[in-house]
């Protein structure tokens, strides 16, 4: 049998010549790893099914991530979408040994990490704007008090700028997590990971066909790790079974469940001290030292269920799709906070936390999508969504305690007075409902107009009850509505070069931070973007470039846990990125982003200042090479290296202290060892932060400065069978 592989027009073609007169051609999408639907089973029409061809090492399709959607709308190749989009495939997380999502954010232009409530939540900044509940999971806006377990990730999609048919979001963009779905192609994967600081993590991933109509996937992971920070242990358990049914008429139903338990301390990092004239200096007692020990325990447990259904409606390629989603999360935590630093360096701290924090989210969507010929060819997705979220908890705050010093916080031990602390019961409720539409209209064979809109109805309320004196305060905004809209033109100037221009606006109503009953006006923003997308080397190399101008009004910022209205914000800049595999085995990703962001405020102390945690520029390069020649003694060996640079950032809106710039270098190597037909073991070794750069990740206020990880050696072993 002769096997030939070639690429043409964005499609990978595998031709197997069985004899001189017989050939079988199999066409695979160049972005097979970013699946939005399960692989189809055999159709029983007599098609020839070949045994899998064993290829030692990484399958190239696991790096290719070109198709994407968000919110379940139209699925497009990112070369055809008039906006900047970055896609992170699962394979990249494995090659970089990424144990959390924030480890890969920094490899993308104008994306940096934020402090994330002491490192316990997903938190990032895109194009100068901090996300507000803008982590999406399979198109559902998901608020969570915990981290997302990487074991569930098929790909991460970073959408730059507003997505108007989504509705509520910050104008910088959003992150959408596509989770792993069942496949009719059998694959089993298990891995163990460890590092010098005490990481101990394991994961299993199994998928395959149960019959011609049923397929399954089971993903699970467990972790019991220590970190470089003193008295910091992370324990996680994750389990996610998923089942898909596919009917003879291509109707599908997918049912999924996730259980996640996340135990980790809320780590406030280091602090700053006053140096006079309104400026502050970041304390440096050592990267491992914590100011919030010994009371820093947190336990979060969540259950999540979702059902996705798709039914053809009988004409052309139209489908009726529905989604039901429900999650329930309960968290208990206790930690200590630095409140101030006396002139002699003595700390003032207190014990506080939250008991019985319950967060539930219900979401449903019904939509129709397909093609029409209304004088011009168009594809359309339209429907309606409803989301309801409720959160309640008991917040307790102890008395101020004086003791310990900036350089030696453990010299005085705090007293746990949580039993006698002041306590308040807090409840926040939010609901939104909105019809939406998105359409791609082919004005010319080389010119496509993309349009989208959403009419959102929303309401919210917060109630705080003092459990000691029974006093009650409340705040609410009644049902209101907002229309958000977008339009973009994509012109295919040549076969490999496309140019686009787009406009989008967005808004986000106040979400009552921490149960604060103050009612702020809704944040509203808009973006203009102009860009280009270029395919080179027979689509082996993909280049993108974009220039953007964003404006937002009524920006609310949280400083040391207190929400405040800072005014408006502008953000102008550009970004360029390159991704591809120039030759067999070689994969590369490079990016550079620049943003000129500033506050527009009536407060003279911050007007014109760059927003907190926002650098003017960041840059990154990741390159890996895997030897693929079966005749080579190095066959199966892979080498990877990455460099990320983040510019200087300010730790608060007043620019009283700086976080500085940093450059991180990571190195990794892996080797695939075949252990029989369709089986191989992979060994990983590497080092993160090779130069042992001492850096600060982000600031949540003058007493909440996150500390970056030191040089870390790691290893791992995985098996595919």
UniProtKB/TrEMBL annotation:
Keyword Membrane: yes
Pfam hit, one: Plug
Alphabetical keyword list: Cell outer membrane, Ion transport, Iron, Iron transport, Membrane, Receptor, Signal, TonB box, Transmembrane, Transmembrane beta strand, Transport
TonB-dependent receptor-like beta-barrel domain span: 247-690
Signal sequence range: 1-34
InterPro entries: Beta-barrel_TonB (IPR000531), Beta-barrel_TonB_sf (IPR036942), Plug_dom (IPR012910), Plug_dom_sf (IPR037066), TonB-dep_rcpt-like (IPR039426), TonB_sidphr_rcpt (IPR010105)
Superkingdom classification of source: Bacteria
Main location: membrane
Keyword Cell cycle: no
Localization, UniProt: Cell outer membrane
Domain TonB-dependent receptor plug: 79-173
PANTHER family: FERRICHROME IRON RECEPTOR-RELATED, FERRICHROME OUTER MEMBRANE TRANSPORTER_PHAGE RECEPTOR
Family to which the UniProt record says this protein belongs: Belongs to the TonB-dependent receptor family.
Listed name of the protein: TonB-dependent siderophore receptor
Record organism: Azospirillum oleiclasticum
Classification lineage: Bacteria, Pseudomonadati, Pseudomonadota, Alphaproteobacteria, Rhodospirillales
């Amino acid at each position: 049998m002769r096997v030939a592989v070639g690429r043409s027009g964005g499609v990978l073609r595998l031709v197997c010549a069985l004899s001189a007169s017989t050939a079988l051609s199999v066409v695979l999408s160049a972005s097979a790893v970013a699946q939005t639907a399960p692989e189809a089973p055999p159709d029983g029409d007599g098609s020839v099914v070949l045994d899998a061809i064993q290829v030692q090492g990484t399958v190239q399709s696991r790096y290719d991530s070109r198709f994407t959607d968000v919110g379940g709308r139209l699925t497009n190749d990112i070369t055809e979408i008039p906006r900047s989009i970055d896609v992170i495939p699962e394979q990249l997380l494995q090659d970089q040994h990424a144990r959390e999502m924030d480890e890969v954010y920094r490899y993308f232009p104008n994306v940096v990490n934020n402090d994330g409530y002491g490192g316990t939540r997903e938190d990032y900044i895109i194009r100068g704007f901090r996300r507000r509940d803008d982590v999406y999971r399979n198109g559902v806006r998901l608020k969570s008090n915990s981290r997302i377990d990487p074991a569930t990730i098929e790909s991460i999609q970073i959408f730059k700028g507003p997505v108007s048919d989504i509705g509520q979001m910050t104008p910088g963009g959003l992150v959408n997590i596509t989770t792993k779905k069942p496949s009719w192609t059998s694959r089993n994967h298990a891995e163990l990971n460890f590092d010098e600081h005490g990481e101990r993590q394991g994961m299993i991933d199994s998928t395959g066909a149960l019959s011609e109509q049923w397929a399954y996937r089971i993903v699970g992971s467990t972790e019991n790790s220590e970190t470089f920070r003193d008295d910091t242990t992370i324990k996680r358990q994750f389990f996610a079974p998923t089942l898909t049914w596919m009917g003879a008429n291509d109707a599908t139903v997918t049912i999924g469940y996730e259980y996640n338990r996340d135990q980790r301390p809320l780590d406030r990092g280091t602090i700053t001290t006053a140096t006079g004239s309104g400026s502050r200096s970041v304390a440096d007692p050592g990267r491992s030292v914590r100011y919030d020990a010994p009371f820093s325990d947190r336990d979060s447990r969540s259950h999540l269920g979702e059902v996705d259904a798709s039914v053809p409606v009988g004409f052309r390629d139209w489908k009726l799709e529905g989604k039901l989603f429900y999650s329930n999360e309960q968290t208990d935590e206790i930690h200590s906070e630095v409140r101030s630093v006396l002139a002699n360096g003595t700390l003032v701290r207190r014990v506080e936390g939250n008991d019985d924090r319950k967060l539930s989210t219900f979401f449903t969507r019904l939509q129709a999508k397909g093609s029409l010929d209304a004088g011009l060819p168009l594809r359309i997705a339209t429907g309606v969504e409803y989301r309801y979220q409720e959160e309640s908890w008991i917040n307790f705050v102890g008395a101020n305690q004086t003791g310990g010093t900036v350089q030696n916080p453990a010299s005085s031990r705090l007293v746990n007075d949580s039993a006698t602390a002041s306590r308040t019961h807090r409840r926040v409720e939010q609901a939104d409902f909105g019809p939406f539409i998105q359409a791609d209209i082919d004005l010319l064979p080389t010119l496509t107009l993309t349009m989208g809109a959403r009419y959102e109805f929303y309401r919210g309320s917060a109630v705080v009850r003092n459990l000691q004196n029974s006093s009650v305060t409340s705040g609410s905004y009644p049902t209101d509505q907002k229309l958000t809209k977008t339009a973009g033109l994509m012109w295919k100037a040549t076969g490999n070069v496309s140019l686009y221009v787009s406009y989008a606006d967005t808004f986000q109503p106040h979400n009552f931070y921490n149960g604060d009953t103050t009612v702020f006006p809704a944040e509203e923003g808009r973006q203009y973007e102009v860009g280009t997308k270029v395919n080179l080397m027979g689509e082996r190399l993909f280049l993108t470039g974009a220039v953007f101008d964003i404006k937002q009004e009524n920006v609310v910022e949280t400083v040391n846990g207190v929400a405040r209205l800072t005014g408006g914000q502008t953000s102008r800049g550009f970004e360029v990125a390159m991704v591809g595999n120039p030759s067999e085995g070689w994969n590369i990703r490079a990016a550079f982003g620049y943003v000129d962001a500033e506050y527009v405020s009536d407060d003279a102390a911050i007007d014109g200042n760059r927003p907190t945690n926002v650098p003017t520029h960041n840059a990154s390069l990741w390159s890996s090479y895997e030897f693929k020649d079966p005749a080579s003694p190095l066959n199966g060996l892979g080498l990877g290296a990455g460099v990320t640079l983040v510019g200087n950032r300010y730790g608060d809106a007043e620019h009283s202290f700086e976080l500085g710039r940093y450059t991180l270098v990571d190195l990794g190597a892996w080797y695939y060892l075949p252990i029989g037909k369709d089986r191989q073991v992979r060994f990983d070794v590497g080092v993160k932060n090779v130069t042992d750069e001492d850096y600060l990740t982000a600031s949540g206020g003058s007493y909440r400065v996150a500390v970056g990880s030191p040089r870390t050696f790691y290893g791992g072993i995985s098996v595919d069978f």
